[in-house]
Amino acid sequence: MASDLATYRRMRDFACTPEPAGEVGPEGRRRFVVQRHRASRLHYDFRLELDGVLVSWAVPKGPTLDPGARRLAVHVEDHPVEYLHFEGVIPKGEYGGGDVIVWDTGTWEPAQDKAQRDPAKALRKGDLHVDLHGEKLRGRFVLVRREEEKDDHEQWMLLHKHDEHAVEGWDPEEHPRSVLTGRTNDEVAADPDREWRSEAPAHEAEVSLLPAPLPDAAIEALEELPGKGGTWEVHGRRLKVTNLDKVLFPGLDGEEPVTKRELLAYAARIAPVALPYLEGRPLNMHRYPDGADKPGFWHKERPSHAPAWLQCWENPEAADDETQAYVVPDEPAALVWVANFGALEWHPWTSRKVAMHEPRFALVDLDPGERTTWDELLTLARLHRTALEHLGVTGRPKVTGRRGIQIWIPIRPGYSFSDTRAWVEQLSRTVGQVVPELVSWKWEVKARKGLARLDYTQNAVNKTLVAPYSPRPAPAAPVSVPIAWHELDDPELRPDRWTVRTVLDRLEAVGDPFRSLLGVEQDLPDL
Ligand code: MN
To answer: Residue 150's pLDDT is what?
Structure first.
């Protein structure tokens, strides 16, 4: 299995570069993909790379490991290899308009017998036997053309042989997630990363719908500034940046400490991704101007020296001794300004400035006690997941970058903080009853006796949780990172697994699991 995965990864890298037609991958293997495609009808597209194209069949009921099932497979047009790992939407009105996920992928090879030695020939003969090495599909599959075929699209039959990978009763619809991103078709449709324009030439057909990444030239310009700082042009603004070589985060395990220059580069790169969770919201800044190993403090007031373009919001309800004007990061450069101001942690309000008493997320904060183990925290997170699934409510977890896990649940406008607080309290108390030995409801830390707290009290105006992708003030600059639910089962998951140095690679590989929450407006069902 490990060697299959290694082969698969090597081959996935090839997908990024054009390759000569007909090339066969390492160890004589070719690639395959099965895409779950919701067009006018749901079907699974079963595609084998062969002679520089993806030979394709549309399988209405989907491929299965069940050796007792025979599935209709309609032979359709070859697809370009550029389509291999496409996941996203095809515009309505175009051929195949709808949404697509990479339901499975991996490598294949012809069955080891004489008639199958030349798979192109076996394909022409209408009797193709292949061994699949996917994440879901494994073992020997057979594709046979039916004799009685007449119309344009030949009807074939797809079946799985009786071998050690066969599973009776195996249903593809019970395994609905993408093997690349963990997303379902619904989640991709709600917030697609990519679009496929089937009328364009294959090498131009895929279009990214994600925010444009920061050009490398902007980072190079930052690298060239002297240690005392200077003017940096970034995201269309000219920003005065200072003390660039100052250490803000100690290193960990012998690694170099993180300087302010590195933090600013991170803020500039992450800004297009993090902005949707910050824009339109007053920002509470947790400042550590002397670095994460010195005491920090909350700073909420927009300073008088802030540039004129930096958006702000005046709280109409502020008493004289309270913060009057808050920074509202409404553009990517604002986040760079915030980082340069020494704010290592970014805490946006849960409500927006246009309706300060209406939260747009219900927030579950799983706060471990000193005795809470990581496995126990995962148990609490999974129980919340089960409860949300049962209620039909969409929410997503995020690791905090310190020790905890939070769950963010997007809601429609119109709820008050007392609504979300009461709802989350009820939800968490129900979960807590399942595992009373793990949870304390005591207010005082000492009285909790080291147990976890399911904290619903942050659902209040001007109370905040750390933003998605905000750094945390700790050695190595860990980051609070949204994850997919299935990642709770990843043995390498840790609450501080990712840092400002690694989170961008993760984003490139799996995207932002919170993106599919954007624009979701849910009712909170009665509990
Ligand atoms: Mn299709």
So the answer is: 63
Using the predicted structure, report yes or no on whether residue 22 has a pLDDT greater than 60: no
CATH assignment at residue 504: 3.30.70.3300
Distance 100 CA to ligand 1 centre (A): 8
Ligand 1 center–CA 45 separation, angstroms: 5
Residue 25 lies in a domain: yes
Given a contact cutoff of 8 angstroms between Cβ atoms, the answer to whether 498 and 479 are in contact is yes
88 alpha carbon to ligand 1 midpoint, in Å?
A: 12
In 26-137, DSSP assigns E strands to: 30-38, 42-50, 53-59, 70-80, 88-90, 98-110, 127-134
Coil vs helix vs strand at 513: coil
Q: Give residue 468's domain range.
A: 358-517
Asked if residue 141 and residue 8 are part of one domain, the reply reads yes
Look up the pTM and report it. Answer: 0.74
- Centre of ligand 1 to C-alpha 77, Å, is 10
DSSP state of 198: T
* pLDDT band, very low/low/confident/very high, at 26 (cuts 50, 70, 90): low
Render pLDDT for 51-91 as a digit per residue (tens, 0 to 9): 999 999 999 999 999 999 999 999 999 999 999 999 999 99
